[in-house]
Design brief:
The protein has 164 residues and is of the alpha+beta class. Helices cover 33% and strands 19% of the residues. The chain is built from five helices and six strands; from the N terminus they run E-H-E-H-E-E-H-H-E-E-H. Strands 2-1-3-4 form a four-stranded mixed beta sheet, sandwiched between helices. It has a two-stranded antiparallel ribbon with strand order 5-6.
Length: 164
């Protein structure tokens, strides 16, 4: 998947130019690979139409609060729309850029939602969504009241020894 930033290289709007520069600067600083698609270049009418037809946010600016068409920069991951400048900036502020850009996280250190564990030849599936107290392992020697047979025998032996 490739992040694509749709820009206009000949925009007369200073705010649009600053936004485009900021998006590219942030992506560079985070070492995120991207392709720039300049919708103002000759022969890029198809890319311009794609951006305008698939952008759900218009990228309103102070100078143009109600644009007729989506204003650059608009960000996509391949053909999947990610958002406009304001959404990009918010994702950067709350440190959710990978989520915003719909990037696959390769170094995800979080635990999977379910874990498969083998014990005594029996498979046990536990969910990490459960509270740790709710994970109860049952071994072969356990009886319904929670005490193992060995513990019950030791308890009975101790009572017998105390009676003598």
């Amino acid at each position: 998947m490739v992040v694509k930033v749709y820009i206009s290289g000949i925009s007369g709007n200073k705010e649009v130019k600053k936004r485009q520069q900021r998006v590219l600067l942030i992506l560079d600083s985070k070492n995120i690979k991207y392709d720039v698609v300049d919708i103002a270049e000759p022969g890029s009418e198809e890319q311009k139409d794609f951006m305008q037809n698939n952008s759900t946010s218009l990228g309103a600016t102070i100078g143009d609060p109600n644009p007729r068409h989506p204003l650059p920069p608009q960000i996509f991951n391949d053909d999947i729309y990610c958002g406009d400048y304001d959404q990009f900036d918010m994702a950067n502020e709350i440190d959710e850029m990978d989520k915003f850009l719909k990037l696959e996280t390769s170094g995800d250190n979080s635990k999977p939602e379910t874990e498969h564990k083998m014990e005594n030849g029996n498979a046990e599936i536990s969910s990490n969504k459960e509270k740790p107290e709710e994970n109860v392992e049952i071994t072969e020697n356990e009886v319904p009241n929670g005490e193992s047979e060995i513990a019950q025998e030791e308890h009975q032996d101790n009572e017998t020894a105390q009676e003598s």
